[in-house]
UniProtKB/TrEMBL annotation:
Membrane-crossing residue ranges in chain numbering: none
EC number: 4.6.1.12
Assembly behavior: Homotrimer.
Protein name (Swiss-Prot/TrEMBL): 2-C-methyl-D-erythritol 2,4-cyclodiphosphate synthase
Source organism: Faecalibaculum rodentium
InterPro entries per UniProt: MECDP_synthase, MECDP_synthase_sf
Residue ranges of domain 2-C-methyl-D-erythritol 2,4-cyclodiphosphate synthase in the record: 2-155
Amino acid sequence: MIRVGQSVDIHPLKPGRDLVLGGVKIDHETGLDGHSDADVLVHAIAESILGALALGDLGTHFPDTDPRYKGISSLKLLAHTVDLAAHTGYRLVNLDATILAERPKMAPHIPVMRENIARVLSCDVSQVSIKATRGEKLGFVGRQEGIAAVCVCLLEDRR
């Protein structure tokens, strides 16, 4: 049996915060605002896995009212999500994610993002596709008010 999950995550940009995407700290004048490190890419990936398994969303598992998750690396949240999936007998076949950001350029950082995510997912980097696109000066992405990420994943039952 196979399952498909999809997710979208959005966070506003805020001065004084680090910009972390795919577990990579990127030099930029603003970062993403949120309770954890606000890594929208990793959040979208984790929620697509949770969605495929009908296990709710990140807020259900890691509420922003819980101080244990304040500033936590989203890669740790993804690792916990992978453990949940493993207990159901499902493993990742592949995922395809897109980052929507006007700036900074994502292309130089994508190879390391893929490696970080593949390591946490215990899969080959060829199973992790990450792309980026700009907002072309349209909407909140184009006005550089925030960054979004979307992800679709395919899981298969390995039992």
